[in-house]
Amino acid sequence: QVQLVESGGGSVQAGGSLRLSCTASGNVYSVQCMSWFRQAPGDQREGVARINRDGSGEYYSYFVEGRFTLSQDSAKKTLYLEMTNLKPEDTAIYYCAASRLYCGSWSPGAWHYWGQGTQVTVSS
Question: CA-CA distance, 38 to 91, in Å (whole number)?
Answer without folding.
Answer: 9
